Amino acid sequence: MITRDRTRQSPHPRHGGRHRPLAALAVAGALAVLATGCGGAEFEPTFESPASTPEDTADLTEKDVNAWLDENMPAALEEAGIIGGAVSVVHDGEILTARGYGHSDVAKEEPVDPDETLFRPGSVSKTVTATAVMHMVEAGEIDLDTDVNEYLDFELEKSFDEDVTVRHLLSHTAGFEEKVAGMFQAPGTEVDLREVVSEDPPEQVYEPGTTPAYSNYGYDLVGYIVENVSGMSFEEYAEQNVLEPAGMDSSSFEQPLPKELESRLSEGYAAEGEPPEDFENIADIPAGALTASATDMGRFMLAQMGDTQGPSPVLAPETLSTMHEPALGSESLGGLADGHRMTPGFFEEHRNGNRIYGHGGDTNWFHSHMQIFPDQETGIFFTMNSSGNPGSANVTLRTALMEEFADRYFPGAESGEGEVESTASEHAAMLEGTYANSRSIHSNFLSALYLVNEHQITAQEDGTILLEPSPTTGKPAVFEEVEPWVWREVDGGSTMAARVVDGEVEAIGTTASTLMPADPVTQSSVSLPIMGASLVVLLLTIVSWPIGAIVRKVRSLPKRDPAARRWARVLTRAAVTATVLAYAAWVSVGMLAMGGQDTPFAVLEVIQGIQTLGLFGVIPAGVVLYDNIRRGAGWKRYVGSALVLLALLGSGWFAANFAMVAGSVSY
What does the alpha-carbon distance between residue 23 and residue 607 come to, in Å, rounded to a whole number? Predict the structure, then answer.
């Protein structure tokens, strides 16, 4: 049995969202629920080794891999609440095995066939897109370091003077914020890739080449460059120059799928026991619209190692070498270059001292991961057609499978040489604090969502650091310093590297993302209590109005508001009501956005207007407080009117800081 200490791990949601116990209510609270996915008990898969094969001497053979997978996958999928999945493994220039488990269609009791059943591997599509781009680089039609405006028929909106290059787009260092709106289109809608990248683009929030920030938009943009330069649709170019040469005849970027493939697509499920969902028409075609079988993804992995099963090599060896090397160095990234970096298309990873390049991917219903071990000429691809229960189960399962595969067939340990003791405690103390993920939204109301996506670093007594949660697994992870400003995960394959400028930690690069020091004023520990307390006061205020009216009527008490000040009280009530309504509306819009449903910009502008009315309510609320004090209205009225004023100030401060008042409505 292969086991490992998982006592430091805790439940985690999908897609990087993190749940924190929030003070109270409203937008961030509701968005926290959205970010966490499904609740439920923690799922921890255990992978057994077949009795005939000692776990520390396993040979990478078809017989052993099949026995190991068959021993573990059916039970693991069932325990995770996942309907069906498939695995393909390649080794020494051939597909070693491809296995299917569970069902592709529950109602028809149709089993998963790794050769025939098609899945949607989500962002693993980016590796195919990057291959298409490198094909054009190899042909001399695109240069990795040329300003992308040379290849576009519109002017790219930028916030910095520095050029954005194809290399930046392929390595997620162009500096764009996250974009959510329009990600999914109604089934049957024809997607115009030029429209996707040219209309309402996300803001550029980081200087190009300096800060890795994962960007679907960046890959849409580089996909459109392929389309614009080649004169072919992106889908056609990818098929003719990547899929067909690799022998991937069961794969396509087309939406809807070609007739000959349509019936082979697995149903996608939110969870076990739920009905199948509709076909996901993905607007970000180059970033995530690929459909493929597990066997075809095996062929793709072989093509990445120069061993094609198709009619011709996809890329020349020297092009593949460029594609598998880190895209940027220390001259651009600074200290971040000492950790894991992006290649043009892949995440750089390590485990047991072995070099790995890989990529994960998610749609709403499909979840996948691919890892290639270039030095061992080996690759593994795993895909699932449902999220599991809890909703994070798919992440836990695929992470465990990749770790167990590496531990079983390529065991070993990371070298302990170079471990740092003299600076460990000092550097750990300097890193301690709250961090935000670089993959975030800055310019619109969804920026509030990322308050529940913060990471906490704590310096420990032994010089190690505790990162909660790890961007890679969503669970707490302990890191030890192995070089100055470079840390390696204890009992794991992740690394961290810090960029330190003038004694200040500017950024921390991890295997999966970049962490930026959170703004001490607007971080969740400050913002959420202010927002929560403010809304509690405003809600209690609204509840008190009818109660007060009833009490006055029962006791036959006269109204005590002087007519001269009644306008201030009326406007204050209007502001309180507007503020609560606006926050309720933002919650609703946020829920729709996270569910892939767009809200018209005009509606968002109306909500912003209502929010602004609430913000301006601090003026009449201040008049009411002053009037109560001037008239000697009593301590109850002093306290009540002061709390209302503070609540309007607090809720307005939160709304202004998180673009709910004057921010962009393009999200």
Answer: 24
Domain endpoint, select from 518, 546, 578: 518
**Cis peptide bond prior to 11, omega within 30° of 0:** no
pLDDT tens digit string along 519-551? Answer: 999 999 999 999 999 999 999 999 998 887 787
Percentage of the chain exceeding pLDDT 90: 74
What is the rounded distance in angstroms from the CA atom of residue 197 to the CA atom of residue 85? 33
The range of the structural domain enclosing residue 86 comes to: 55-409
The 3 state secondary structure assigned to 538-562 is HHHHHHHHHHHHHHHHHHCCCCCCC
Which residues touch 563 (CB under 8 Å, ≥6 apart)?
A: none
Which pLDDT tens digit goes with each residue over 422-443?
A: 899 999 999 999 999 999 999 9
SS3 state at 651: helix
Q: 240 CB contacts (<8 Å, ≥6 apart)?
A: 232
Instruction: State the distance between the two ends of the chain, measured CA to CA, in whole angstroms.
Output: 47
Instruction: Enter the pTM of the model.
Output: 0.89
**568 close to 645: Cβ distance less than 8 angstroms:** no
One DSSP character per residue, 432-495 reads -EEEEESS---SBGGGGGGGGGEEEEEE-TTS-EEEES-TTTSS-EEEEEEETTEEEETTSS-E
How many Å is the Cα radius of gyration of the chain?
Answer: 27
554 and 446 within one domain: no
Establish if 365 belongs to a structural domain: yes
